[in-house]
């Protein structure tokens, strides 16, 4: 199944538990991340997660799932963000 078709069929949800654990489904790519910000692409658009001490607990792009731990301060959909190449494409040359 092509990436585009899979993306359209993938459900999207955001579950925040106590501002410390964030589970996101419908993730198609992670463009950047550090301890203060994660920039990711979902089937519903670009999503910016900001906070402190952020780290990726689990990333499964095939399943479209991302889990972030840390102090979550902001979740914002921002379609004005123009992502560069994926972080994983830059690292692995895909």
UniProtKB/TrEMBL annotation:
The record's section on InterPro entries has: Spore_YabP (IPR012504), Spore_YabP/YqfC (IPR022476), YabP_sf (IPR038705)
Q: Which domain of life is it from?
A: Bacteria
Q: A biological process (GO) annotation for this entry?
A: sporulation resulting in formation of a cellular spore
For this entry, the protein name equals: Sporulation protein YabP
- Native source species: Agathobaculum butyriciproducens
The root-end lineage is: Bacteria, Bacillati, Bacillota, Clostridia, Eubacteriales
Gene that encodes the chain: yabP
